[in-house]
Amino acid sequence: MKIQYQQHTKDISQYSELSLIQRSDKTDVAFVAYGLFVLSLVFISYLLGLFGWLPFDPDDMDMDLMMALPGASGHILGTDFLGRDILTRLILGIQAYFLPGLLAIVVALGLGTFMGVLSGYRGGKAEAVITYINNVMDSLPRLVLILLVVAAFKPDIYIIMLVVGLTNAPAVASLVKDKITFLKQKNFLEASVALGLSTRTIIVKHILWYNCRTLLIIQATLGMAEAILIETSLSYLGFGVQEPIPSWGNMIQAGANYMMRGDFWPSTAPALAILFTVLGFHLLGDGLNNILEGKRRK
Amino acid sequence: MKASAIKPITLVLARELTTTISLLLGVSVIAFLIILASPGDPFAQLFGGFSGTESERLALYESLGIPTTWYGQYFSWLGNVVQGDLGTSIRSGQPVLGEVASAGVNTLYLTVGALIVTLAIATPIAIYTAIRENSRLTLTYNLFAYMISAIPVFWLGYLGIYLSTHLFGFFPLGLGSSDTGNVAKFLLPIFILGLGSGLISEVVRHMREQVSRVMNEEYIRTARAKGAVVWKHAFKEGFLIPVTEIMAIKMPFIIGGAIIIEQVFNWPGMGRMAWQAAQDRDFPVILGITLAAAVLVRLSSLVHKLVFVSVNPRASHL
Amino acid sequence: MSTTPLIKIEDLHTFFYSKAKQAFIRAVDGISMEVPRGKTLGIVGESGSGKSITMMSVLGLINAGPGVIRGKVTYDNGTINKNLLDGLERFVDVHEESGTVMHVEKDLAGWQKHSEELMKDIRGNEISIIFQNPKAAFNPFTVIGDQIAEMVMLHTDIKDPQAAKEKAIYWLERVKMDTPEVRYHNYPGALSGGMAQRAMVAMALASEPSLLIADEPTTGLDATIQAKVLELLAELKEELGITIMIISHDIGVISALSDYVAVMYGGTVLEYGKAEDVLSTKYDNKHPYAKALLASIPSLENIEKSGGRLQAIDGEVLDTIKVVECCKFSARCNRITDAVKDKCHNNQPPLQDIGGGHKIRCWLYQ
Q1: What is the pTM of this model?
Q2: Mind giving me the DSSP string for chain B?
């Protein structure tokens, strides 16, 4: 049986002219799109909350309309067990983690890149120290450390996020250092030095901006996802934002008893918010990783 | 060929022990310094409390020979710890070591059980998506794993309680001494933690990578050519080692999840104790729990290393 | 004594689908050959000629991934007679559009399951294969003796582990391993290349197969060890009367053992026949490629003939992704005459028997 597949191989130069998006897996593009959607939703909601452009007053209790399901008289997401509008409270809940999360990210990335560059460039002792600290951090559950901090300083979310950032820094440093080691092997750094570029230029422009930005962006997305989970867990435990200020975590906690009695919505709405937001950041990071780093594949 | 006089297992154990001790030291320093940095005189709390002005206290310390510098205080505390004295709980007045130990065992049950559940769910997904390259199915499974990992575990816990109360008719809260025969009460928190700890997607990813890699090894090709049972050959490198490896790596996260689950289900473990200690600012207890948690993590690493050594014929490359 | 060949490959095509290039890589492009019972067929060719892939296709060992394997491989040992590729096309769907292969969909699970069923009593049982990198081919976590014993228990009547162990030691002895009882307990990492290769031969023969396929059995071994392994194979061939297919890019290896030889290039067979015909130094009835191969061997005779210099073959190995409507070797052939030039550049020559079962695929001999 003769197989007659006549074919014309695609011209290779044509292939590489396809844009990054066209070259990538469709699922990864979808993930990134969803992630960006979530990110913008979070950001917009944060701004809405900041300026008070809310559908309802968060403390306004409508006693006639408790536990309303979405849609009831203008409450897009319904009301909770005290008649308060859920959508408003969800929007405000973003404030509980948004800035603190950014703090954690900035600290982790800032300190992490500094440490990473230091140990990547100088190697030796700096590297050993950072590896050691990294290993220590890996041996300690994040939440235990946070409870320790809570015990010592009383629950201030910014201090906690600062600690989170500090404890994530070694991991970032390790990634940056690996990247630098990799670049060193490629003689890329030697060439830059030989060309007379100042160390500062080399580090900032070539190493960080061109080569590390992908991994830093991805660490940022993961960092925000983690911040959400930490903040909501903390406020669930009672150590974060206190009632009546809404946090997605304390909303779930407050609604828990009602959930046992069959009134799911007040607890489930914030849980879904957490689900879709964390999912968004995770998928964003994963999708970006595949698209941007996967270009090394054929 | 002369065999080495020291068995690989002994070498591995020695190395693990040294690493563990050095890491625990690091943990203790960080934890202690955090406590010391808190407002007031935390050191006093660690040794029984004292009220009075700053200078009076310092004077008393000096007269009693109690160290006043931070490193002095650290070493004095450390000295006690090494001798088994973790102080007494401010809340209960009981020695911390005993309390933490018995609570720790309960947490151990919870975390190990949860890890087993996570593996039981993640491994079939990983193997299936590694072997069958059906992209649609892979996508579905991946998405499922991601979504499960994004659900807040405490909400999942409540859902579990609701379902078990209303569907199965029992109320699984509050573990008492009379409950030792009640298997279901044990299983639900373990199941929820295993499902909702957020690790499933990563475990799936890790296992799938390893299974794929091993399946492409030459010796698997030989096994296939021999007409042998392939999974028997792939088991050690493709399952046993990756499993213990991921368990060791993810233990800290499971412990974190355990803290939350213990709240939801009122499980008498280290996590609930830590929560209480954070509320009461019970420094000795929280320090003790921090150390215990680190010990648990190192234990799982030890298990992994032991399995690795026993499976590998020449484990000098560790 | 039946004259039907033990294994007969007819028109085998193995294509791998490259998504990036949206085209098939034609690793094996129409191969036919056969091995008579008890004889040895040597397959020689440069790297990339498709020799190993041919064997993998026969045994169904191609690693997953979209692609097509078509053709007929008939295995007939008197009791079993079947086509080893029967029905595999059902699991692959190829979508073409105006000459370009847009998409290939393969029901991997179904394909593998079907292949396993077809090969269930063949792999290990009837056909054994020894691989190129012996140390890597063994399971690094198990002692070699146990791996040989596994072969015994799977495919012979011996099911008792202790008896299997003894049989494994017997085979280790047969392949001239020193201290077989001790070697039994060695891990693959502890063996040298030569010893590992012997162990692999022992493992392959432990199931008492009818056909032994040796894929580059001596590549990577020292010259002296190579000679020993070849010696071993020759002896075993004598003693056991086993049918062998040996694949190598080394003509010396091929000529040491083969009764029949096939010369492969670009996924096709260019010359096929009895060893003495194909490998003869009488350069008359030879395919230009085969002739060039023989001339390029660093031997004293060749150097004399060519005036003191080694004869390399011009050009590079064929890129198997391009479809060619001409003789695959034409780009590198140095014997094209004006008489056949048109044909060489525009048409693939058929495999022509020029007498006594000696077949050549070249316009010069049509």
Answers
A1: 0.80
A2: -PPPSS-HHHHHHHHHHHHHHHHHHHHHHHHHHHHHTSSS-HHHHHTT---S-HHHHHHHHHHHT---SHHHHHHHHHHHHHTT---B-TTT-SBHHHHHHHHHHHHHHHHHHHHHHHHHHHHHHHHHHHH---HHHHHHHHHHHHHHHHS-HHHHHHHHHHHHHHHS--------GGGTT-HHHHHHHHHHHHHHSS-HHHHHHHHHHHHHHHHTSHHHHHHHHHT--HHHHHHIIIIIHHHHHHHHHHHHHHHHHHHHHHHHHT--SHHHHHHHHHHHT-HHHHHHHHHHHHHHHHHHHHHHHHHHHHH-S-TT--
